[in-house]
Design goal:
Distance between the termini: 25 Å
Order of helices and strands: HHHHHHH
Shape: globular
CATH superfamily: TerB-like
Largest sheet: none
Number of strands: 0
Number of domains: 1
CATH class: Mainly Alpha
CATH topology: TerB-like
Helix content: over 70%
């Protein structure tokens, strides 16, 4: 995946994870798995963390949108599937997480049904193996 995808994903993941005010162990584990799955290097994560230190949520959101807009439709869908799964990971979806997901889906022009179907297919694939 390209750098725009990774940076866009990191921006939205940051917003999603911090939406409810705390990061629990399930979210941390899901975050580590996501970084491994998408081959996001520790250096990229460190650069990202420096870039958002002290930055307002609205600016982080705007940057994330700018990165995702440069991605392919497949990359956009993949990013939104990751966000959806991450929102589910702590077993309690906060209203700010729902709002963020809906905004991200809207600005990337990805169909919500496509995101849900992709998540369900991934779950079914894991259950079958």
């Amino acid at each position: 995946m390209n750098a725009n995808f990774q940076m866009g994903l990191l921006h939205f993941v940051h917003l999603l994870v911090s939406a409810d005010g705390h990061t629990d162990d399930r979210e941390k584990a899901a975050l580590a798995a996501l970084q491994a799955e998408e081959k996001i290097s520790p250096a990229t994560v460190a650069d990202f963390e420096k870039s958002v230190a002290g930055v307002r949520e609205s600016e982080i959101y705007t940057r994330g949108v700018d990165y995702l807009k440069k991605c392919t439709d497949e990359e956009k869908l993949t990013a939104l599937v990751h966000l959806y799964r991450l929102a589910e990971s702590d077993a309690a979806i906060h209203i700010k997480e729902v709002r963020l997901l809906l905004y991200a889906i809207n600005v990337t022009n990805v169909e919500f049904d496509d995101v849900v179907m992709s998540v369900q297919m991934a779950k079914a694939g894991k259950m079958a193996s």
